[in-house]
Recover the amino acids of this structure.
């Protein structure tokens, strides 16, 4: 423990697997809390949802729901994880740098935090405790 805290010894592979799982669960569940109200208020939101890409409010909302809902569930399960974070990264880039472009950092902060978490998941991958491990066993044989 002393080595880990003060010298920076790397995590053992089993500990890394648990850290990756906790990160996926934490970020995925939190993002679902943004998707559920959008689903519940879909009829109203589809008329007033921001349209930063010029594709229409309804399609913008639908794509946001797919990212925040479906992709978050995939991240939680660790299924096609790196592929699933790509729409979420795009969603957070649009939220932070287009929708909140003229606003202060306080309004962008949450989207930027999610962006950082999704970049971390993209780089680190899902870990051994994931559906990806069972789907792509040969990639995990040396872990």
């Amino acid at each position: 423990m002393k080595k880990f805290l003060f010298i920076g010894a790397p995590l053992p592979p089993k500990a890394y697997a648990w850290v990756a799982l906790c990160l996926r669960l934490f970020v995925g569940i939190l993002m679902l809390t943004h998707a559920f109200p959008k689903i519940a208020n879909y009829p109203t939101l589809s008329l007033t949802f921001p349209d930063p890409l010029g594709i229409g409010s309804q399609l913008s909302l639908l794509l946001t729901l797919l990212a925040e809902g479906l992709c978050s569930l995939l991240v939680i399960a660790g299924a096609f994880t790196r592929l699933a974070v790509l729409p979420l990264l795009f969603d957070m880039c649009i939220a932070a740098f287009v929708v909140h472009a003229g606003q202060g950092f306080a309004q962008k902060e949450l989207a930027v935090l999610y962006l950082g978490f999704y970049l971390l998941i993209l780089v680190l991958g899902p870990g051994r405790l994931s559906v990806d491990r069972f789907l792509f066993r040969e990639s995990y044989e040396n872990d």
